[in-house]
Amino acid sequence: MAPEVIVATLTALLLGKPVIRGLARLNVRQTIYAYAPETHRTKEGTPTMGGFLILLGVLAGVLTLLAQPDKRFQIAPLLSLFTGAVLFAFIGFIDDYLIRRLTGQRGLEWKTKLALQLLAGAGALWVANQVPNLLQHSAPGAQGALNPMTGLLGVLWVVGWVNALNLTDGLDGLAGGLSVIAFGALSVVAQDTYTATGALLWAGACLGYLWWNTHPAKVFMGDTGSMALGATFGLLTWREWMLTPTIGSVLNLSLLGAVFALEVLTVVIQLTAVKTLKRRIFKATPIHHHFELLGWKESEIVVRFWIVGALCAMLGILGWGGGR
To answer: Which one of 40, 150, 194, 263 is CB 3.0 to 4.6 Å from 286, fit for a cystine?
Structure first.
């Protein structure tokens, strides 16, 4: 494994205890919403915003490239990607901490959050497009100017994955483990060097974070982490999609994060059914709550979702979406 990936993993793992202590001292703790399954009541008060561990791990991994002259060309594009992730992490920070501390409310109102996400998505894509790629190290066509259509499509794509990751982060280890799988698989199919390296760095940082987030979780990533992860997955897969802009390509890339997509899809289905049919399709959404109410143990749901995620990722690697 590349040194930068090991550094990202160990940084997230070794900084876990001091970061968790710091979050606890700041009283950054999870609140459980009223409609959550009863088994979640024991999670009340667990430190949140553990997504900072992932961000620190990735940043340490990127800086490790300074000691590797043959990889230094990747630093600028990877930092541009990191900047995009930080934009979304800041929205998550507002939602996780500032709103609750200043107003006592549970978080941002959904319309405000969506508006901020759309602005951050546009900003993240703009920043990513400002860094020219050294073509001898990149796939042909990797750098193309944004036009209004691809820009709008890119913003919607990124924001979609942000909310998919955000909804998936509901059980100990669920979003973190699926992120290791999705980013790891993306590094395999990536046509571009920086995409492959970036995906591995985020997979490694998520792996280190899982040490602290496995059941029973010592810390939750919060919106700070889930939004950063979703933005990064969206930005990297959007880049790959633009290299091969076909329906098959987008299906393959979606397979890599299929469980994330399923989580947000079930929420859309449930809301649509309630508004139009006046009935529920699932016992609760996102879909992991449905299985909780069916009596599955939390650890069973998490591991089984990991398995489904890994199977879907393998199908994406094999090109079952039709893009390879």
So the answer is: 263
